[in-house]
Design brief:
This protein is of the alpha/beta class. 42% of the residues lie in helices and 23% in strands. It has one domain: Vaccinia Virus protein VP39 (Rossmann fold, 3-Layer(aba) Sandwich).
Protein backbone atom coordinates (compact mmCIF):
# COMPACT_ATOMS: atom_id res chain seq x y z
CA UNK A 1 0.00 0.00 0.00
CA UNK A 2 1.24 3.48 -0.86
CA UNK A 3 2.39 5.40 2.19
CA UNK A 4 0.61 8.67 2.95
CA UNK A 5 3.06 11.53 2.50
CA UNK A 6 3.17 14.80 0.53
CA UNK A 7 4.75 13.29 -2.59
CA UNK A 8 2.00 10.67 -2.78
CA UNK A 9 -0.69 13.30 -2.20
CA UNK A 10 0.67 15.39 -5.08
CA UNK A 11 0.92 12.34 -7.35
CA UNK A 12 -2.73 11.47 -6.77
CA UNK A 13 -3.75 15.09 -7.31
CA UNK A 14 -1.88 15.20 -10.61
CA UNK A 15 -3.47 11.89 -11.65
CA UNK A 16 -6.96 13.20 -10.86
CA UNK A 17 -6.27 16.44 -12.72
CA UNK A 18 -4.98 14.60 -15.77
CA UNK A 19 -7.91 12.15 -15.74
CA UNK A 20 -10.81 14.45 -14.87
CA UNK A 21 -9.70 17.99 -15.69
CA UNK A 22 -7.21 17.79 -18.55
CA UNK A 23 -4.99 20.49 -20.01
CA UNK A 24 -6.29 23.93 -20.87
CA UNK A 25 -4.21 26.50 -22.79
CA UNK A 26 -5.93 29.56 -21.31
CA UNK A 27 -5.58 28.34 -17.73
CA UNK A 28 -1.98 27.27 -18.36
CA UNK A 29 -1.26 30.74 -19.76
CA UNK A 30 -2.83 32.34 -16.69
CA UNK A 31 -0.54 30.38 -14.38
CA UNK A 32 2.47 31.23 -16.57
CA UNK A 33 1.63 34.94 -16.38
CA UNK A 34 1.28 34.67 -12.62
CA UNK A 35 4.71 33.08 -12.40
CA UNK A 36 6.27 35.79 -14.61
CA UNK A 37 4.77 38.42 -12.31
CA UNK A 38 6.42 36.67 -9.35
CA UNK A 39 3.10 36.18 -7.59
CA UNK A 40 2.90 33.49 -4.97
CA UNK A 41 1.39 30.23 -6.33
CA UNK A 42 -1.60 30.41 -4.03
CA UNK A 43 -4.29 29.85 -6.67
CA UNK A 44 -6.59 26.87 -6.24
CA UNK A 45 -5.42 23.51 -7.57
CA UNK A 46 -6.87 22.35 -10.91
CA UNK A 47 -9.19 19.84 -9.23
CA UNK A 48 -10.46 22.61 -6.94
CA UNK A 49 -10.94 24.94 -9.90
CA UNK A 50 -13.06 22.26 -11.55
CA UNK A 51 -15.02 21.88 -8.30
CA UNK A 52 -15.82 25.60 -8.30
CA UNK A 53 -16.87 25.31 -11.94
CA UNK A 54 -19.20 22.43 -11.14
CA UNK A 55 -20.66 24.19 -8.08
CA UNK A 56 -21.59 27.16 -10.25
CA UNK A 57 -23.29 24.80 -12.70
CA UNK A 58 -24.98 22.65 -10.04
CA UNK A 59 -26.36 25.72 -8.26
CA UNK A 60 -27.38 27.28 -11.59
CA UNK A 61 -25.74 30.47 -10.42
CA UNK A 62 -26.15 33.59 -12.53
CA UNK A 63 -24.29 35.97 -10.24
CA UNK A 64 -21.03 34.99 -8.53
CA UNK A 65 -18.93 36.97 -6.06
CA UNK A 66 -15.23 36.19 -5.65
CA UNK A 67 -13.18 37.75 -2.86
CA UNK A 68 -9.52 37.55 -3.92
CA UNK A 69 -8.74 37.55 -7.65
CA UNK A 70 -4.94 37.09 -7.84
CA UNK A 71 -4.25 36.46 -11.57
CA UNK A 72 -7.76 35.30 -12.46
CA UNK A 73 -7.34 31.51 -12.43
CA UNK A 74 -10.39 30.68 -10.32
CA UNK A 75 -12.38 33.52 -11.91
CA UNK A 76 -11.91 31.89 -15.32
CA UNK A 77 -13.07 28.52 -13.98
CA UNK A 78 -16.25 30.01 -12.51
CA UNK A 79 -17.01 32.44 -15.34
CA UNK A 80 -16.94 29.59 -17.84
CA UNK A 81 -19.78 27.93 -15.92
CA UNK A 82 -22.03 30.99 -16.05
CA UNK A 83 -24.73 31.48 -18.68
CA UNK A 84 -24.05 34.02 -21.39
CA UNK A 85 -25.77 36.78 -19.41
CA UNK A 86 -24.20 35.75 -16.09
CA UNK A 87 -21.83 37.97 -14.16
CA UNK A 88 -18.89 37.35 -11.84
CA UNK A 89 -17.69 40.20 -9.65
CA UNK A 90 -14.18 39.62 -8.32
CA UNK A 91 -12.54 41.86 -5.72
CA UNK A 92 -8.76 42.35 -5.72
CA UNK A 93 -6.82 44.62 -3.37
CA UNK A 94 -3.69 44.92 -5.53
CA UNK A 95 -4.10 46.99 -8.74
CA UNK A 96 -1.26 45.15 -10.51
CA UNK A 97 -2.89 41.80 -9.80
CA UNK A 98 -6.23 43.13 -11.02
CA UNK A 99 -4.66 44.34 -14.27
CA UNK A 100 -3.05 40.96 -14.86
CA UNK A 101 -6.31 39.18 -14.09
CA UNK A 102 -8.12 41.47 -16.53
CA UNK A 103 -5.70 40.43 -19.28
CA UNK A 104 -6.14 36.75 -18.43
CA UNK A 105 -9.94 36.65 -18.28
CA UNK A 106 -10.09 38.56 -21.56
CA UNK A 107 -7.62 36.17 -23.19
CA UNK A 108 -9.68 33.22 -21.92
CA UNK A 109 -12.77 34.58 -23.68
CA UNK A 110 -14.83 35.28 -20.56
CA UNK A 111 -14.00 38.94 -20.09
CA UNK A 112 -17.55 40.12 -20.76
CA UNK A 113 -18.79 38.07 -17.79
CA UNK A 114 -16.13 39.26 -15.31
CA UNK A 115 -16.14 42.57 -13.46
CA UNK A 116 -12.98 43.13 -11.40
CA UNK A 117 -13.34 45.66 -8.59
CA UNK A 118 -10.12 47.07 -7.14
CA UNK A 119 -9.75 47.78 -3.44
CA UNK A 120 -9.78 46.22 -0.01
CA UNK A 121 -12.71 43.82 0.06
CA UNK A 122 -13.97 45.22 3.36
CA UNK A 123 -14.26 48.60 1.62
CA UNK A 124 -15.69 47.32 -1.67
CA UNK A 125 -18.31 44.91 -0.30
CA UNK A 126 -20.66 47.54 1.18
CA UNK A 127 -20.95 49.11 -2.27
CA UNK A 128 -22.49 45.91 -3.61
CA UNK A 129 -25.50 46.10 -1.29
CA UNK A 130 -27.65 47.87 -3.88
CA UNK A 131 -26.90 45.33 -6.61
CA UNK A 132 -28.73 42.06 -7.27
CA UNK A 133 -28.00 39.27 -4.77
CA UNK A 134 -25.39 36.64 -5.48
CA UNK A 135 -26.02 32.94 -6.03
CA UNK A 136 -22.49 31.79 -5.13
CA UNK A 137 -19.69 33.41 -3.13
CA UNK A 138 -16.07 32.23 -3.15
CA UNK A 139 -13.87 33.57 -0.34
CA UNK A 140 -10.12 33.26 -0.94
CA UNK A 141 -8.42 36.36 0.44
CA UNK A 142 -6.71 37.36 3.70
CA UNK A 143 -7.77 34.85 6.32
CA UNK A 144 -7.78 37.38 9.14
CA UNK A 145 -10.94 38.91 7.62
CA UNK A 146 -12.92 35.69 7.07
CA UNK A 147 -15.66 36.68 9.54
CA UNK A 148 -16.05 40.05 7.81
CA UNK A 149 -16.28 38.37 4.41
CA UNK A 150 -18.75 35.75 5.64
CA UNK A 151 -20.98 38.41 7.13
CA UNK A 152 -21.07 40.24 3.81
CA UNK A 153 -21.54 36.96 1.93
CA UNK A 154 -24.69 36.41 3.97
CA UNK A 155 -25.90 39.98 3.46
CA UNK A 156 -25.26 39.96 -0.29
CA UNK A 157 -26.63 36.52 -1.14
CA UNK A 158 -30.09 35.06 -1.28
CA UNK A 159 -31.38 31.94 0.54
CA UNK A 160 -30.04 28.83 -1.15
CA UNK A 161 -26.83 30.53 -2.27
CA UNK A 162 -23.60 28.53 -2.06
CA UNK A 163 -20.67 29.93 -0.08
CA UNK A 164 -17.18 28.43 -0.37
CA UNK A 165 -14.26 29.34 1.88
CA UNK A 166 -10.79 28.21 0.81
CA UNK A 167 -7.69 27.35 2.85
CA UNK A 168 -9.30 26.20 6.09
CA UNK A 169 -6.90 23.32 6.88
CA UNK A 170 -3.69 25.31 7.34
CA UNK A 171 -1.48 22.18 7.52
CA UNK A 172 -3.50 20.93 10.48
CA UNK A 173 -2.95 24.03 12.59
CA UNK A 174 -6.64 24.91 12.36
CA UNK A 175 -7.24 22.41 15.17
CA UNK A 176 -4.78 24.23 17.45
CA UNK A 177 -6.88 26.34 19.81
CA UNK A 178 -3.77 27.90 21.34
CA UNK A 179 -2.36 29.29 18.09
CA UNK A 180 -1.29 32.93 18.01
CA UNK A 181 -1.06 32.97 14.19
CA UNK A 182 -3.52 35.66 13.03
CA UNK A 183 -4.32 33.80 9.80
CA UNK A 184 -5.22 30.62 11.64
CA UNK A 185 -7.17 32.59 14.22
CA UNK A 186 -9.06 34.14 11.32
CA UNK A 187 -9.83 30.74 9.84
CA UNK A 188 -11.00 29.42 13.20
CA UNK A 189 -13.18 32.48 13.68
CA UNK A 190 -14.74 31.97 10.28
CA UNK A 191 -15.44 28.30 10.95
CA UNK A 192 -16.96 29.12 14.33
CA UNK A 193 -19.20 31.63 12.58
CA UNK A 194 -20.27 29.05 9.99
CA UNK A 195 -21.15 26.66 12.79
CA UNK A 196 -23.00 29.13 15.01
CA UNK A 197 -24.57 31.76 12.76
CA UNK A 198 -28.14 30.74 11.81
CA UNK A 199 -27.65 32.26 8.35
CA UNK A 200 -25.40 29.34 7.39
CA UNK A 201 -25.56 25.56 7.17
CA UNK A 202 -22.02 24.36 6.53
CA UNK A 203 -19.46 21.59 6.49
CA UNK A 204 -15.70 21.46 6.06
CA UNK A 205 -13.39 19.11 4.21
CA UNK A 206 -9.66 18.75 4.72
CA UNK A 207 -7.73 18.12 1.53
CA UNK A 208 -4.28 16.92 0.52
CA UNK A 209 -2.60 17.26 -2.86
CA UNK A 210 -0.37 19.56 -4.86
CA UNK A 211 -1.24 22.38 -2.46
CA UNK A 212 -0.23 20.34 0.57
CA UNK A 213 -2.53 19.75 3.54
CA UNK A 214 -5.42 22.20 3.56
CA UNK A 215 -9.18 22.20 3.10
CA UNK A 216 -12.32 24.12 2.27
CA UNK A 217 -15.69 24.88 3.80
CA UNK A 218 -18.96 24.79 1.86
CA UNK A 219 -22.11 26.42 3.17
CA UNK A 220 -25.64 27.14 2.08
CA UNK A 221 -27.19 30.51 2.89
CA UNK A 222 -30.23 29.62 4.97
Amino acid sequence: MTASHPDAWAAVDRYLAETLVGSDPALDATLASQDRAHLRPIEVAPVAGKLLHLLVRISRARRVLEIGTLAGYSAIWMARALPADGRLISIEAEPANAALARENVDAAGVGERVDIRIGRAADVLPGLADEAPFDLVFIDADKESNTVYLDWAARLSQPGAVIVVDNIGRSGEVANADTDDPQIQGVRGGLAMLGEDPRFDATGLQTVGVKGWDGLAIAVRV
